[in-house]
Task: structure prediction
Amino acid sequence: MRCGFVQSKLLMTSTLLLVALCPVGVRADDEKRELTFDKDILPIFRTRCIRCHAGVEPKAGLNLTSPSSLLTGGDSGAALRIRAAEFSLLYEKISSGKMPPVGQKVTAEEKGLIRKWINEGASGVSNAAVVDRSDDVTVVEHWSFHPPVRPDVPQVVQTDRVKNPIDAFVLQQLEEHHLTMAPAADRQTLLRRATFDLTGLPPSPEDVEEFTNSIDSDRYERLIEDLLANEHYGERWGRHWLDVTGYTESAGILNEDRDLPLAWRYRDYVIRAFNSDKPYDRFLQEQIAGDELTDYWTAFESDDQLSDEVVEGIVATGFLRTAADPSRPDFKTIKNAASQYFYPTLFDTLQIVCSSTMGLTVQCARCHSHKFDAITQVDYYRMQAVFMGAYRPDAWVPQMNRRLPIASKKQKEAATKRNAEVDVNLKKLKSELAALKTTFTTRLFDDRLNGLPEQIREDVKAAFAAKAETRTKVQMYLAEKFEQTLRPKAKELDTALAEYSDYKKQTADLNAKVTAEEGRRKSFDEVRALYDLPGAITTPVLLRGDALTPGPLVEPGVISTLQTPQKFQWKAPSTEAKTTGRRLAFARWLTQPNHPLTARVMVNRIWMHHFRTGIVDTPDDFGVSGSPPSHPELLDWLASEFVRSGWSVKHMHRLILTSSTWRQRSRVSTEHRATCEQVDPENRLLWRQTMRRLEAEAVRDAFLAVSGTLNPQLFGVSQAVARQKNGEVIVPGGADQNRRSIYIKIKRLTPETLLQVFDQPTMSVNCTQRGMSTVSTQALALLNGDTITRAATAFAERVISEQSDDPVERAVLTAFGRPTTKDEHDLLTQFFETQKAQYEGETAEADRGKPESLAAAEKKARGDLCHMLMSSNEFVYLD
Amino acid sequence: MNPFQPLSRRQSLQRFGSGFGGLALGTLLSDAIVADQPQTTASAHFQPRANAVIQLYMHGGPSHMDLLDPKPLLNRFDGTTPPDEVADDEKRTKNLMGSPFQFRRCGESGLEFSEIQPFVSQHADDIAVIRSMFSEHRNHEQAIWMAQTGMTTEGRPTLGAWTAYGLGTENRNLPAFVALPDPGGPSVDGLRNWSSGWLPPHYQGTVFHEQGSPVLNLQPKQPRSRAIEDARARLLRQLNDRHLAQRPGELELEARIDTFELAGRMQLAATDALDLSQETEATQKMYGLDDPTTKSYGTRCLMARRLIERGVRFVSLFMAGQPWDTHTNNNEGTKKCCQRTDKPIGALMTDLKRSGLLDSTLVLWGGEFGRTPAAEQRNAKTPFGRDHHPYGFSMWMAGGGIKGGQHYGATDDFGYRAVENRTQTANLHATILQLLGMDHETLTWHHNGRDERLTDVYDARVIEELLL
Result:
């Protein structure tokens, strides 16, 4: 192997262009003048390119003589991208020497001009006039694009299993296939399943005992009512909703992963909405247009203070603020920040809105229409126009500045006035304090000077009186020597002054006034909201989804292939209007009773969380490429029932949880299973209930609940997380360490480890359906993780204190929600005894047999027992 | 040496059924993934040239004209105003700045390296340098996503995750994709560097640590005796067996029981894999473990070799922060990075070659972009640096079916813009997948109503010129 120096010989590839050897500096007058298409660029094209790229049939479809055709481009797409020469086809072809293929090449100077012209904004080039609509599909026959029609409830043979219409629809299909439902599950199973389904927590041992022993005929129905009224219900179902909204508490997407300190208010709004069973149509309207719906601006301008309703309205718009938005004020200096940072937030927002509310995948249409797809590119940008009033890439407001105070204009003005007074008063008080200090500092100087030996006193005085630069050597010496004594600084001065009781008292008085004055200062809590920005709004179709190749402008609209009884209705407001009404018009269109998708998508989602799989098993895709419903009539009946009930989510839970369908066992006989699996291996016909693993939050919350350490406090600022040295992200210790998982701060780059391992989604946009993985990292987190180990120790202490005569019995009842069986009890007892003996055997010989070491061994053994119960399949699975 | 009998690709195919769907099942310690059935239906795949990848990710964007892309003209016009054609369009940099480093022709091939890479350059004949890379973003994070996930949008799966998904692991006791972060601190963009994005979490990189417990929670914080540990495991197994017996046919429950068994086996396998004391002193020295400057990176390089040896598919090595981000004092900063990494990487290459593993192991070196040919100076007191530069930069590949001793593509005379054989990231990714036996167009995952792929909508071309 040899390594030699390359000295004078240059290694050049054959096609490498040698540009002008003498770099040409740009002349000063050129620097100031903006390059234009007509003056600077067209002449170059004329001499070099026009032979092919002009006329009626230009080569490759690209006409270089008209600036408006440059964005539309030719057969290979846009010829240029505004302000991005480096990524423009035109510049690529020219700079690499590929174009022109024959004749005189473009000179280095000309290349420089073209590059500069493009990077300065391609003056003279206007938006592309047309957009390619050749792939548009305007009529699509697809079941979900037509409004649901309430079907008749079918007649079935097994009428004894029909508790409500759900069962009739399910039985109808089962009977068609000569199948039957599985028997109803036992009470303990139902209690555990219902409690987790509705609250995300296990039933307490007392609940289990009472419910099992109750002889009331309506005890089950009462259970469902109690659970729906339980305040933890909102935490469970709010969490499901937060998944589809893409909620996090960090701005993303950059490494700094900035905190969103106000985001939690929206989380609390969602929890409250579920707890109060806010009608779903209202819920959506508030989230999309809460400011417009409650007339925020009028309230702001004319009311004394904002009503609760208005505040709720603006908090709800947090829904439209979940998309990653890393913008900061300094982003305005970034070239093409709109296309690189601002538009992506708008894209994500539209994706979140459409997938969460309509179960539609719209993002494909951002770039172009697809044959067979019902959403055209133009429709996509019409919907984007709905949100353009607020999210304006051309007039972007950095994310941290998009917030509204919880205050009316009057309150704000009063506060401003008051705060101005406070400022004046404070200034006065502070100058009084300063004056006081000066007076006493002088006095201190004099007093201390007088304390000096008489023979030097006058000399020192003279030294300090003289200006620093006129001091004699002796004076300099004296000034330096006595500086500390006569003119102490900072803390020493304060200590010295405090010796004067007058000073002490007067400053204390003044400081008290300062504190009182500071207390008068008025500030308001703030909301991370979405609201329209002032100014003219334009929404261009972006050719190929690229903000650097804008096309024709569009007005607000919706997906035209959706068959809604009421059309989207919007009129441009007057130019003085504070808000455009675009979002409210969209929300009203979306929540009309017979919208083909809104109710169907939501009842499907509710169904999915009760059965693991939705009636449509692609909850995010009700479109042409999604799956057809397993029970189309049931889906439509549920959708119409949902609307009829006043969009009551709790009504849907009630129906589902009291149905025979939901109450089926998941553990079925081998015969039943064999018969049914032959026809329907995936249980789409619902011949049994499906086993389900608890979601991440429910796993952690259940650990805390059974250990008795769960802090049930609702609402408020989220619990911070911390990354440990080994990379694990935990909730640090302290009183709030054990709050429910929904209150743990969700940071995009530091997700809490236990939750992450159990599939809490990593939010890049949103999550419409969680994955459920079964991996060894979960086993490791359960065997050796911090949270479970702490919880297991507490659990062990809890069972011994609650049932000292039979802690094993208590542990099983608490962990699994059922009494223990005889041989299981034996197994656990034996484990406990062996483990205890082993721990005892492992203690130092000197301590062995002592009561405290026996107690420690017992505690550890019981901790192990509880730990294994919590790690077991029965704990994390619902029957 | 290897206590585990790794399955060959062919054996894996036979064992797990035909095609990728079956293969991907063998992934990350669990061959019974029930809830997330792999979806890929790729049937047309190629004879693989490599079965493992070591990615030496260089956070910050190494300066191509100081390392791999000699620019004599840039040196000649050092200190002059750049011509319009290569002037900084954002006006963040000043005059042109030549490289102070001498370039040498190395090996039989004469491939050029700057003098600050004395060890890596000894492998010139095995290395192919791509000098015509370009990226689409000037900011680190987005450019990192481009390099690692194929697009400048956040949240997509990394190359390692795609590999794990497509190929699974050859050693069922170790993950398919291992990330080796710097104990000195997280790299820019943190855990997204080994994220599985919307692919199931099985495919994300498992972090192995140099110090302490190699894998999170591999051992309890309070040590337990063997007897205690065994009794716990036995009880858990008994509880789970009883539970399963009452629920015959529930595959998920069985799979979950397996994960606990596998966790136990991983304790042995991971501990063994990372036990560097099994290496001779000479080897340790070769990797620079005896020198504080090279110790950390050398340790990760040696760990990488041991993991690859044991059947791990994809190992990514990272450095804390973004050391190649030389905004100030580019020359010193670039040199320092080389001092930390050059010797260990050279040793890794030597070691892989010696054991024959280089033939089947693809080594990737590079960052998210290059650096500007013009000088950057934010503060008059600091020495010149270079700014981020996505329009043209270099990376290198070696082993695993790569034709070494060549450079591919070229930037213009100043190293500003890739002009010859311009190489978009998608081409690089398609080439890597092809070397691993996968077709970038058929390795897909259905997500949000779309069949997603690493190369997304890019018209990607496998760079045949780089292949043996």
User: Anything to note?
Assistant: Chain A has five domains: 28-119, 157-230+597-690, 279-407+529-590, 409-523, 786-878. Residues 1-29 of chain A have pLDDT under 50 and may be disordered.
